[in-house]
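Protocol step 6 of 9: fold each sequence in the batch and record its structure tokens directly after the sequence line. For illustration, a two-sequence batch is reproduced in full.

Sequence one:
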Amino acid sequence: MSEMISLEEARALVLSHVRPLPVETVPVLEAVGRVAAADLASDIDIAPFAHSAMDGFAVRASELAEASPESPVELDVIAEVAAGDVFEGVIGAGQCVRIMTGAPLPADADAVVKYEVVNAVSGDGKPGSRVAFRAPADARANVREAGEEARAGEVVVGRGEVVGTAGVGFLASCGITEMPTYRRPRVAVIAIGSELVAPTEVPAPGKIRNSNSYALAACAQAAGAVPVVLPIVEDTHEALAAAVRDAAASYDFVVTSGGASNGDFDFIKPVVEELGQLLMTTVNMRPGKAQTFGLVDGTPVFGLPGNPAAAYVGFEMIVRPALRKMQGFSRFERPVVKARLSTDAKKRDPRRIFLRSTLSKDEAGDYVVTPAKNQSSGLFGPIQRSNCMAILPEGLESRTAGSVVECVLLDVSEEIVL
């Protein structure tokens, strides 16, 4: 299992071995950003009654047909109806009702004229006043109709739809307070390396803090998963095998970092092969050539490199799509835009290269991308200051300033179509 495959092949391979997790029911407020696992229907018409879209006067439109600035039509204000109240009286000829936003439209009225364009002839515009209209009104003007947004029994959120913040309000208005959705995957995050210590420790000579676990856990959380950072595992086959075996038995997905190459103390590949099925070891990309993937007792196990940038890129491009599929999402790739390089980009490696970069717009409104000066795979800082990754395709062709390249957007959801 040493054949290097393309990123597309790697992503397809991993996606083919994961599936949506079982469905759970959550309160609607917890449904934000999650996928509906069933069609959801309203229990009533939305809106349940025709109501005013603004503060104004409920009228018969026909009475204002001849209204003009030179010859205004005057009507008597006989009542006032506020939101939450109902006017059940009769609006006779030459009469109107003052109405507030959201209040039910009286049965005899078919339009609302906003308050600001109506002049008081006598009184203050409230009941007992007489007001003048200087323009006709269209029938149903400024009226939100009953059932305008949904009818009782109509599906308002379909299976597979991602619920946004406005969707939560929509569901609540439809009487839906709980939503079936796919369970979030629990992800075990394991850092491998005898040189690692906890972030709370000051590293002794030869030691470094375990930052990868926290970055990868944050990536998993940003993908909608539930990460659990497990203890650091020392560089021995036995220790790693025990940690992976236990994690695979308890979690939905296992992500390790470190020990993914072919050194004397790199054990993730033989451990996965020993415990289960090894499906992938290398991907034609930089950073992150060493990408181990397999199954242990049916649980996906992904071994990322120890270098921070390599681990991050591998997670974003391959692991994140898998975690999204497990939650029922159907879009797996970040949006890509084309931009002009602000500087030359040398190409000395035939692999596909992902340059940590910053995307901006020039004075003409065109995208410009600036790769970070330091592209070392051992650094988190350039990633923190980047909002995209500029792609240099396979081959040895360098790019000069002004060349157009594709850029993967790191701060834009897969759901956004550009």
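Sequence two, same batch, same settings:
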Amino acid sequence: MDMRPIQTIGQRQSLVVNTQLQQAICMLQMSNLELQSYLDEQAAENPFLEVAPPQPEGQAPPAQAPSRGAAEDAFDYIQMRAEARPASLYAHLRGQFDLIFDDPRDRAAAEIFLEALEPSGWLGEDLAQVAARAGVPAEGAEDFLARLQQVEPAGLFARDLAECLRLQAEDRRCLTEPFARLLENLPLVAKADIAALCRVCRCDEAELRRQLALLRCLDPKPGAHFDAEEHGARPPDLIARRDGDGWTLDLNRSTLPAVHVDAGQAPRAGGCAETRAYVGARLSDARWMRRAVEHRNRTTLAVGAEIVRRQGAFLEQGPSAIRPMTLRDVAEAVGVHESTVSRVTTGMMIDTPQGAFPLKAFFTTALSGAAAGTEDRSAAAVRHQIRDLVRDEDPRKPLSDDAIARMVSADGVALARRTVAKYREALGIPSSFQRRRAARLTGS
């Protein structure tokens, strides 16, 4: 056997993931707003790259800069018209502490109790521990807590659900004996045991339902709405609109930045060899960035247009008509890899006549038909049908998972009971037993 080394020459092609390719891949999965932020960072490092911010539709061109005095007047006018942000829960309570506590020591102790307050408005620690940390004597802890519970809205600084609801009932002056007994037996309320509740509250069913109606009017977490923040909806990246008998898709130009290359700066850059090399590299990067953004936009439009073409029924009829579609289906139609479609649809929003949706929402698996020749339906459409069936059911006779499976299967989709249970839990729909118990409590 000849063991001598042999040298051969051959050719092969391979894809090297360099820095520019990594940037191009990242830009594919950026939304318009993320792309704007990314391009701004690149423009800050490249003197030949200019990023024009998106121009909102219908916005007038910027006027000439006003004088300093006019600018200050305009700023003051805007500040006067701006709506004040609502105070947080803790700022709201600190303002009330100033009126309740005259003694600085009590005021400082109230701050310690405030630190133990949960966003829900409940006291999140044991009363004895908080009182010891605040320097309040153990025998006076209950009295000090009672002073704290005088704040508004009623129910704050409660230690449990029953106390929270009792404070609100006292504030409304509706803490009757049957209602107090109801608060002492909240586990029976959770079980919807009407007969047992009538016995412990010593009232008939009609009076009990009046007490239950009052209970539903109270807020179990009175502090939660202070910390709730309303986040504005993100503007869509694509816009689908009807065009005659079909649909047209376009990028949302009001959020899409434009990239320009300022090559006019290069001839004046002159200088030593290092300077010329730097200018050449930066100018090449700027031109590549412009081509990468154009490629990103073309790919996004191609993938979005294919999704719109396949989901025309959804655009016209809504979620019940969404069709099965996979990444491979779109990739083969567009002529790109599945990973490219996955990246493009990650984080992208599309505005349609049915509302704004993530592009990922249109990809759903197919459920086989119950009989040969029956058209497959998407899992999303079946989940929408289950939601409609539960919404329209008789609350006193809620549909079981078996009944829902039979009704959906009658429409041509072979659906098992365990699949209905899985979809129902994903939709946040309680079981038929829980829905029946809720109906008994509400009397519907």
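Proceed to step 7 once all outputs are recorded. Observation for sequence two: The longest strand covers residues 238-243.
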